[in-house]
Amino acid sequence: MSPEQARTRIQRRNRRAILEAALEVFSQHGFRGATLDRIATEAGLSKPNLLYYFPSKEAIHETLLSGLLETWLAPLKALDAAGEPVPEILGYVRRKLLMSRDYPRESRLFANEILQGAPRIGVTLEGALKTLVDEKAAVIAGWAAEGRIAEVDPYHLIFSIWALTQHYADFEVQVRAVLGPGTPDPYEGAERHLATLFGRLLAPEDAR
Question: pTM of the entire structure?
Answer without folding.
Answer: 0.85
